[in-house]
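Title: Prediction job returns without error message
Component: structure pipeline
Severity: low
Priority: P3
Assignee: unassigned

Description:
Job completed but the reporter wants confirmation the result is attached to the right record. Sequence as submitted:
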Amino acid sequence: MLPRLTIQEVAVRAVDAPLDPPLRNSLNVIPRAPLVIAEVRTREGVTGNAYVFPYTPVALGATAALVRNIGAGLAGRPLAPTTLWSELHNGFRILGTEGLVQIALSCLDMAMWDALGRASGQPLCRLLGAEPRPLPIYASLRGWGAAMLAEEAGQAVAALGARTVKFKLGQARLEDDLDTVRAVRDAVGQPVDILVDYNQGLTRPEAERRGLALQDLDVRWLEEPLPVDDDAGLAALRGALRIPVQGGENWWGPKGMARALAAGAVDLCMPDAMKIGGVTGWLQAAAIAAAQRVPMSSHIFVEASAQLLPTTPTAHLLEHLDVAGPLLREPLQVRDGMALVPERPGLGLDWDAAALARWAADV
């Protein structure tokens, strides 16, 4: 039985910390980690917290304001994440629940579930009926180009024991992408699986051309080769390739996922806890994936993802790309290519107060 809690207030803080090294892809460079942290405080003295990553400092103030303003309307309400998820999504139906609105709702949802876990003294996955267990990771690399990625991939295999690595492609010439894959393969050896990500950057003909070439190099998934809303193009691409098409980090809510799967747009899926709707949205997404037997991986948010994948019937891989780790006293641990799900209650977030103060943003 879940503990009964009543929301007293929601506090919000923001940080803007450097990403070292920065995230690079064919479209841009992300040098910083602007995070919004929600603290859901209850009358019973339990505080749950969670963070979201709106990618750019330009969106930091607006995201924080949305979390703060929506949270103010929750004061005095029973802390019941599933009930409030439905109410809030219905309440924003006319405005729309994509973009920053969804990000804010997800932040509050995750913080509420964290409060329930803390009140019960259990990791979130156990509260949801699953046991914490080691999870296979894929090391998500941050570099760009053959030399940088080969070095980073070798380090990931040596330091993390990673058995799978993923990196960004999308250089102007196909041959440069193929050279990058070959360089990484030379660095990691044959037993390590290679995944590639185009960040929605290709046209339909170019996606097919590059996919056909990459599958001959034993690449194990082709992530977001086309814009996320091009379901027809992705479905046609799947029919032309042997390499599995991966997607999902940019689906907005379970409905976005259901639409893409109904269209046959992907072979594999990887929802993002922030965009899919927090813990409540993830559980709905996991049920959709289970019904269609689609393997489901995660996208960033390693702490929440490590609690959610054990509850996921078709759980596949956890993306190891840790944007909040430098701000935590105990970042998620990885050993021999497996993420070790902590036994700490809730999401297991334990912030480093000095780091938060150092990178505090005035919003």
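Comment from assignee: result matches the submitted record. Residues 99-120 form the longest helix (22 residues).
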